[in-house]
């Protein structure tokens, strides 16, 4: 390896995630020596059906129709791409590539799905990309894209035994954060709409069962051990049976909250695509995969 290469993160694990062999939907996945989980930007563009040229994805994201669906993180990435200021990483084979963070790809999937729901896609090629990203999103939603990358690259077998503690340190804050609104109103509006319940309005008390559904579809899909740790830090009051604080107040801003927001976006997108709760559950089960489904006693814990 050259001295120049030594300045760039290098992949310790690599693998190809074949999502749909017939449609040639394949993502090149890497775990870097700095702990990042990334995709190849070239591979991500190709999987989406875009040109494999390095600037194809930035060119799409610069278009006006998609701008309002981009997260702040995607906007920042796009600014760097427009300035030719994207980093260079090194594969496990010693070849340079442009990385695309797993969390950004999650945001990209949500942007297209939300745009399609709003009928903002004006041509068939845009709709085809949205359909492809929906397929990818439902494939990784069951365990999260980071977990998929760990499995595809084989990194999950090489993780240190204290990996859980490292994950909890990233996700769980040492001190409780001040309350801030994290769950968009549309999450509960869609939950009530799909179940045929009367929505009492913003800021109104919700039935306890809504909290159980929130655990099932959102908190359970944080990394294993995170919800259990939040329950320890935020126990129920024996006299009321309720928790005094919100679980998300124990999540770290830089990692825990970011993952929570991504899971919310994915779930809301599936809700918006459904006409009733049964249809949403069918879509969610398809996305999550049958082995990952929770039973009723799990939900009521």
In short:
48% of the residues lie in helices and 10% in strands.
Spatial strand sequence of the major β-sheet: 1-2-3-6
> In percent terms, what proportion of residues is strand?
5-15%
* Biggest sheet overview: 4 strands, antiparallel
Count of runs of 4 or more consecutive helical residues: 14
Question: Distance between termini?
Answer: 52 Å
Averaged pLDDT, please?
Answer: 82
Q: Summarize the helix and strand pattern as letters.
A: EEEHHHHEEEHHHHHHHHHH
Would you give an account of this structure?
This protein has 301 residues and is α+β, with helices and mostly antiparallel strands. The chain has two domains: 5-157, no CATH class; 163-300, no CATH class. Helices cover 48% and strands 10% of the residues. The protein contains 14 helices and six strands. It has helices spanning 41-48, 56-61, 64-67, 72-82, 102-117, 124-140, 145-153, 163-171, 185-195, 208-217, 226-233, 256-272, 277-288, 296-300, and strands at residues 11-20, 25-32, 37-40, 89-90, 96-97, 99-101. The strands form two sheets. A four-stranded antiparallel β-sheet has the order 1-2-3-6. Strands 4-5 form a two-stranded antiparallel sheet. Helix 5 (102-117) crosses helix 6 (124-140) and helix 6 (124-140) packs across helix 13 (277-288). Residues 290-301 have low confidence and may be disordered.
Write the layout of secondary structure elements.
Layout: E1 11-20, E2 25-32, E3 37-40, H1 41-48, H2 56-61, H3 64-67, H4 72-82, E4 89-90, E5 96-97, E6 99-101, H5 102-117, H6 124-140, H7 145-153, H8 163-171, H9 185-195, H10 208-217, H11 226-233, H12 256-272, H13 277-288, H14 296-300
Antiparallel strand pairs: 1-2, 2-3, 3-6, 4-5
Helix pairs in contact: 5-6, 5-12, 6-13, 9-12
């Amino acid at each position: 390896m050259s001295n120049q290469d030594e300045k760039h993160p290098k992949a310790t694990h690599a693998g190809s995630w074949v999502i749909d062999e017939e449609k040639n939907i394949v993502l090149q996945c890497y775990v870097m020596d700095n702990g990042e989980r990334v995709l190849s930007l070239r591979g991500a563009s190709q999987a989406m059906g875009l040109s494999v040229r390095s600037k194809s994805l930035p060119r799409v994201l610069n278009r006006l129709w998609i701008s309002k669906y981009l997260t702040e993180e995607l906007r920042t990435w796009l600014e760097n791409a427009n300035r030719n200021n994207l980093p260079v990483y090194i594969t496990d084979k010693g070849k340079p590539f442009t990385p695309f963070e797993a969390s950004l790809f999650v945001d990209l999937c949500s942007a297209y799905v939300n745009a399609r729901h709003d009928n903002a896609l004006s041509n068939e090629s845009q709709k085809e990309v949205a359909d492809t990203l929906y397929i990818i999103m439902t494939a990784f939603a069951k365990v999260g894209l980071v977990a998929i990358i760990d499995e595809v690259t084989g990194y999950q077998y090489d993780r240190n035994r204290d990996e859980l503690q490292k994950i909890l340190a990233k996700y769980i804050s040492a001190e409780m954060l001040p309350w801030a609104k994290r769950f968009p109103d549309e999450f509960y509006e869609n939950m009530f709409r799909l179940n045929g319940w009367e929505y009492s309005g913003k800021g109104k008390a919700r039935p306890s069962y809504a909290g159980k559904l929130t655990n099932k579809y959102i908190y359970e899909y944080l990394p294993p051990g995170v919800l259990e740790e939040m329950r320890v830090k935020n126990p129920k009051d024996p006299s009321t049976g309720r928790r005094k604080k919100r679980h998300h107040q124990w999540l770290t801003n830089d990692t825990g909250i970011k993952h929570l927001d991504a899971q919310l976006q994915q779930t809301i997108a599936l809700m918006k695509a459904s006409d009733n709760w049964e249809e949403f559950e069918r879509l969610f089960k398809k996305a999550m995969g049958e082995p990952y489904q929770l039973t009723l006693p799990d939900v009521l814990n």
